[in-house]
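[Automated response] Your request has been received and processed.

Submitted sequence:
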Amino acid sequence: MLDFLFVTIGLLTLSNVEGERLSVRDLVDAHLSGNAIHSIDVDITMSLTLSKVTNRPFTGDGPPDRVHHLAWILTPGSERIQCIDDSKPDPQTGYPTNVNDFLRKPGGAKLLRNYDWNDPQTLTPVHQGTVYAEALPATTELPVKFMDTGCILLRRFEFLAGQQRRTLRELIAKDGSNAEVVSQPSSGLIALKVKQETKGDRPSQNYHLLYFDPAKDYAIRKLETHIVDDASLGTGPISFVRETTVEDYHDAVDGVFVPKTVIQTTGSRGALNSKARFDIKLNSVNQPVAKSRAEFDFPEYALVRTANPEKRRFDVQLWGKNGPLFVMKDRAQLRDYWGKDDPLIARSVWPGRLILIGVIALGVTLVLLWLYRRLGNRRDGVRTPSGS
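Generated structure:
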């Protein structure tokens, strides 16, 4: 959430419960200034209580709870997000499959997956384990590959799973054309409607409804995401609604209200499809963070994908201690650079080789057995002439 220029938006205003006149910009500014976060560390436990398949509550133990650890660090020049879930390691190698690290700066962004800085796996030019690394151009959005639980904290927003996730400022168009304060519910919450921006001639009818609570320094109390039948055409009745509601907050820390319990439901055409509960353990918020934790560089010998707009493809760079060493042409180049056999590769290749040798040996045995039986049948078929 880098602090991008927020152009004055909207002329629509609405009186809140205190008689003030709030424009879209006023509302957003009140929310962000009252609940400003520059660092947060939480554990989020998700419990699914209603099946997406049967639309019925789970019986017995149901599916296991999922736990996500989220650390978010924001500085004037960078933003770093780390997300670790409880997925099991790769069964063959034991390497992690659940670590996501994302760094965004004005000059570009970095995505690093499955590299645990506390217990790093060994990388060589010819052995990458489960690590995935990508250098991205300057962006205002999180990449789809990044698993972000910030949506549960109502700090990022997406319309459909897998789409780009944006902060509130990034969600609203610079000219404010897609946002308006629409109502003042009797609950005292203030509602903001934000339409989905689309590219092309056919606008989408998808939209968010965000409900702000003036009693909590304009923290977002509830989010409704409405998806229509055909977003590409922008027509048809609303068919999908996802509601994310904060039931309880942690005690305010320096004026910041962090959700403690969140309920999320999805439904279509009036029917409830799924229901999940998120319990959020707050480890820290707005604590001083060392500069070394605010940023990271790719580990040595990581193979980093980088976009090549001129050739309309990705290049792969071998990373050194202080940056990229060269663009990889083929695997042989890496082996030549490394200049030796890699014991990690040998350990990972030999099991496969042993299986291949076993299959070949079995095939040879079967062929020899078939030849033996065929020759035996031929000998049995030759009859000895009887004596006269």
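Summary generated for your ticket: Residues 343-381 form the longest helix (39 residues). The longest strand covers residues 235-249.
If you did not submit this request, please reply to this message.
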